[in-house]
Amino acid sequence: MRQDTVVLQDVSHVYVNNRGAFLAVEHMNLNVAQGEFVSLIGPSGCGKTTLLSLVSGLIKPTAGTVYVAGEPVSQPTSKVGYMLQQDYLFPWRTIYENASIGLELMGRKTAADKEIVNQLLDDMGLSRAIGSYPHQLSGGMRQRVALVRTLATEPDILLLDEPFSALDYQTKLQLEDLVASTLGALNKTVILVTHDITEAIAMSDRIVVLQANPGRIRTEVKVPTAIRQALPLTAREQSGFHELFHELWKHLEEKEVHPVNEG
Ligand code: ADP
Ligand code: MG
């Protein structure tokens, strides 16, 4: 039986700052199985990034517990890789140097470690760019470098926060296929945040719909096998795709249970 590798148990999170306290996430329960690909969708401000930050250990829940691989999370670990919407590559470092920074920070500099980075750069079609600098690369290439950097430390779990949203449509579709096939082959556990319903359907095993004010899980939808088994580009042509799109659209349109106070 597959084991749940990410577990949120009745998690709530309150941000406190000089303007007061804000309940960003309330009573969330979520289980993600080893090797599963789960997408989070929902309106801006519903707590998607907060949820990833909680799983990564960057912030601690105000109430409840987050477990990764059976252990309560108390700080960031190399088990979890976090990739943000912006690539945050260092402009003064080459592509190779950017891709290997995580390993470098861990003090991993053996020939085998270098081979991991080179192999990933090759898999991502970046082997000819290893000596280039970020400004010489397209947006899609930069996101691929950021993905290599995240994968190089060999995390079991990947948290992807809108990784394709700044890209043009065609690049985004190509990258979806590349990421889905790469992560699938490595059997990674993935939590993807996206505002694109078609991307969520095309890439995931399961979609979690969140609502805002406060952030809560509204519903979960399983993606049918035929769509799951296809790569994202052809997944969009499978029967059942449009029906699922409309179902999710309806869930997102449902009125909030609580009054809206912020976007
Ligand atoms: P999403 O990623 O779904 O857009 P976030 O998780 O970023 O949502 O934010 C959820 C809510 O928490 C939002 O209303 C946001 O304004 C608030 N929030 C996020 N980060 C902070 C913070 N550091 N301090 C105070 N409020 C925050
Ligand atoms: Mg966000």
From TrEMBL:
Q: Which GO terms describe its molecular function?
A: ATP binding
Q: Which Pfam families match?
A: ABC_tran
CDD domains assigned to the protein according to its UniProt record, in alphabetical order:
ABC_NrtD_SsuB_transporters (cd03293)
Domain (ABC transporter): residue spans on this chain: 6-237
Keywords for this entry?
A: ATP-binding, Nucleotide-binding, Transport
* Domain of life assignment: Bacteria
**Which InterPro entries does the protein's record reference?**
AAA+_ATPase, ABC_transporter-like_ATP-bd, ABC_transporter-like_CS, ABC_transporter_ATP-bind, P-loop_NTPase
Protein's name in the database: ABC transporter ATP-binding protein
Native species of this protein? Paenibacillus baimaensis
Organismal lineage: Bacteria, Bacillati, Bacillota, Bacilli, Bacillales
